[in-house]
């Protein structure tokens, strides 16, 4: 089963499902009307995305998760910090 990707919203899935999705995707329709990006077959769009952009998106998503984890850890450390009652 081949994979496909919507050029409008970036949804990835089986080629036939994505082909049906592009018919009702408002982002895809907006890009087609604007002519801002070439409209590719979902399978071709997936191959282009996989070759050019997938690694960058994966790295950005991983960094965003690390940043959220750092913020949560800092909040937890502050919450459970030992407080000196004489300083307050």
Helix content: 55-70%
Number of domains: 1
Q: Number of helical runs?
A: 4
Q: On the 0-100 scale, what is the average pLDDT? A: 85
Identify the overall geometry.
elongated
Instruction: Profile the largest sheet.
Output: 2 strands, antiparallel
Radius of gyration: 21 Å
> SSE order, as H and E?
EEHHHH
Strand content: 5-15%
Strand order within the widest beta sheet: 1-2
Structural class: mainly alpha
Distance between the termini: 64 Å
- Poorly predicted residue ranges: none
Q: How many E strands? A: 2
In short:
The protein is mainly α and 88 residues long.
Structure explained in plain terms:
The protein has 88 residues and is mostly helical. The protein has one domain (3-79). It is 64% helix and 7% strand. The protein has helices at residues 15-24, 26-34, 42-52, 54-79, and strands at 3-5, 12-14. A two-stranded antiparallel ribbon has the order 1-2. A hairpin with a 6-residue loop joins strand 1 (3-5) and strand 2 (12-14). The chain is elongated and about 70 Å long. It starts with a strand and ends in a 9-residue tail after the last helix. The model has no long low-confidence stretch (mean pLDDT 85).
